[in-house]
Design goal:
By secondary structure, the protein is mainly α. The chain has one domain. Helix 1 runs antiparallel to helix 2. The longest helix has 23 residues. The protein is elongated, with a radius of gyration of 11 Å. The two termini are about 10 Å apart.
């Protein structure tokens, strides 16, 4: 696995984790934005 792919994977996992924490905290809008960023970063994993 290349370093570039690992960095994108860390980004995706980080933003998904942030989205979950924000959703639990009641910040639905910010959680949706974090999930969208994770989705856009996940495109680079292909």
């Amino acid at each position: 696995m290349s370093l570039q792919r690992i960095s994108w994977l860390v980004t995706v996992v980080g933003f998904l984790g942030a989205a979950v924490v924000l959703l639990i905290s009641g910040y639905q809008g910010y959680a949706a934005v974090s999930a969208a960023v994770a989705g856009s970063a996940a495109i680079n994993l292909r």
